[in-house]
């Protein structure tokens, strides 16, 4: 499927370029980012926890920058694998243009998904992609304003990783133990 869009960044092109290639900035802005490591030569390894149409999946991805022309453009190639959750591969041309006192970022590319992701249907996948892209740029602007997104707590990460039936089972066990404890203390 094809993806395209544009976002206005409140920075001159060189500063926008630097921010878009900063591991600190990417770590703060990539939705669901749990880990991000620069591997040199325009390569990054990313681990994300994502939820698409109620399917929570941990993706391990590689991002590669190619045809790099600082601070004007590059091709972003990506491949991500979420195990049984599916996979995604693709590429996008990212172009930065001066725009008044900021930068206009244009992107155009293609994405292919497989596995469970493909079973969700094109509409769900397109909506999820749009949401992820919009969230990235919303976070990007918050970080630029000094409003760093709060890191998720370990408890929240665990809560989101486990399916609802696990938490339901735990809740039933806790209620049962409280019930037994209350009745024993009444004796």
From TrEMBL:
Listed transmembrane segments: 161-182
CDD domains assigned to the protein according to its UniProt record, in alphabetical order: CoxG
Keywords: Membrane, Transmembrane, Transmembrane helix
Protein name stated in the entry: Carbon monoxide dehydrogenase subunit G (CoxG)
Species, as recorded: mine drainage metagenome
């Amino acid at each position: 499927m094809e993806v395209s869009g544009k976002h206005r960044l409140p920075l001159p092109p060189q500063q926008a370029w630097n921010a878009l290639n900063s591991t600190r900035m990417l770590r703060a802005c990539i939705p669901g980012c749990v880990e991000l490591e620069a591997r040199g030569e325009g390569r990054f390894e990313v681990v994300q926890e994502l939820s698409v149409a109620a399917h929570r999946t941990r993706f391990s991805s590689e991002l590669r920058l190619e045809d790099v022309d600082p601070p004007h453009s590059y091709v972003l190639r990506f491949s991500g694998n979420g195990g049984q959750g599916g996979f995604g591969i693709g590429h996008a041309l990212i172009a930065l243009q001066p725009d008044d006192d900021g930068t206009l970022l244009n992107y155009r590319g293609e994405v292919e998904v497989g596995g469970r992701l493909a079973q969700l249907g094109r509409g769900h996948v397109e909506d999820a992609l749009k949401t992820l892209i919009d969230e990235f740029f919303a976070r990007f602007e918050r970080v630029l304003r000094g409003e760093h997104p709060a890191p998720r707590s370990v408890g929240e990460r665990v809560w989101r990783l486990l399916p609802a039936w696990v938490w339901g089972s735990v809740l039933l066990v806790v209620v049962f133990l409280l019930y037994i404890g209350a009745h024993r203390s009444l004796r």
